[in-house]
From TrEMBL:
Name recorded for this polypeptide: Universal stress protein UspA
InterPro entries named in the record: Universal_stress_UspA, UspA
Family named by the database record: Belongs to the universal stress protein A family.
Pfam families named in the record: Usp
Residue intervals of the UspA domain: 175-286
Length: 287
């Protein structure tokens, strides 16, 4: 069951897509959206300063950074209020909530790539823009560290998120532990879906019978799924999977996220990187 949805916001235009996606899911499950804005510490915003810089100039730079951070927080709050009002969601901070979609805005100060993964661990789902990090390295690191270090599923929202999701769900499946976690996280959506498709890529690392094994498992949950083998040929596997999902009319893709972290350097697998770099339909991804 989905009850708490975390939506990191920045005060930029991308807030609108992730908040709309978050509240779309909240309305399906009568869940709570927590919009989280992380203000950068002014001391982190100032580059390494040379000995020749005066105390007065340092103070001026610090005040300017604090002013910018406060302005971003206020813009993020306005984006949240607009999305909440559009979704007709209640305002509440504390559980168990009003029995309908609800939301709350929270702003804290610190490192966003530390705070968001920590907050995500006590959330059921975390919504990011599928293009998070374009022109913003902090958000790119935050997205990847949340995927790899929070143990929670992410929902990647395209730039223009649909107003309804989950009618037709496609699962990119290869039998891995990451895919297994993604399917488990997506079960609330799968149980509500009118149609479910299983996509297996014809590669040396995926056994031909994998799709059938997942279909048998889903049948025990009352979910009847079609099986489709995708042959990438010369195109990237990620591209082939997304193209087939689109052909089948899927409005929601479920997949495993691959990679590992190495002292804040995130090494992502090829399919995962493709999905991050090519926004299309909403994607639930789990590591």
């Amino acid at each position: 069951m989905l009850r708490k949805i975390l939506v990191p916001v920045t005060g930029r235009d991308s807030d609108r897509a992730v908040l709309a996606m978050g509240f779309t899911v909240a309305r399906i499950f009568d869940a709570h959206v927590e919009a989280l804005h992380v203000k950068i510490d002014a001391r982190d915003a100032i580059p390494m300063l040379g000995d020749g810089m005066s105390a007065a100039l340092i103070e001026e730079l610090m005040k300017a950074a604090e002013k910018d951070a406060a302005a971003d927080a206020e813009t993020a709050r306005q984006h949240f209020e607009a999305a909440r009002a559009a979704a007709q969601a209640a305002v509440t901070q504390s559980a168990p909530g009003p029995g309908m979609a609800s939301g709350w805005f929270k702003s804290v100060t610190g490192r966003i790539d530390d705070i968001v993964p920590a907050e995500a661990r006590l959330s059921d789902l975390v919504v990011f823009s599928q293009g998070a990090g374009r022109g913003d390295n902090r958000m790119a690191v935050t997205l990847e560290s949340t995927l790899l270090d929070s143990s929670r599923p992410l929902l990647l929202a395209p730039d223009r998120p649909p107003t309804k999701i989950g009618g037709t769900v496609a699962i990119a499946w290869n039998g891995s532990a990451e895919c297994t976690r993604a399917v488990a996280a997506a079960m609330p959506f799968l149980l509500r879906a009118a149609t479910v498709h299983i996509l297996t890529a014809h590669t040396s690392s995926t056994a031909p019978e994998e799709g059938g094994r997942l279909a048998d498992y889903l049948a025990w949950h009352g979910i009847q799924a079609g099986i489709h083998v995708v042959k990438p040929h010369d195109e990237p596997v990620g591209s082939a999977l997304v193209a087939r999902a689109s052909e089948l009319g899927a409005d929601f893709l479920v997949m495993g996220g691959y990679g590992h972290s190495r002292v804040r350097e995130m090494i992502l697998g090829g399919v995962t990187r493709y999905i991050f770099d090519h926004p299309s339909l909403p994607v639930l991804i789990a590591h």
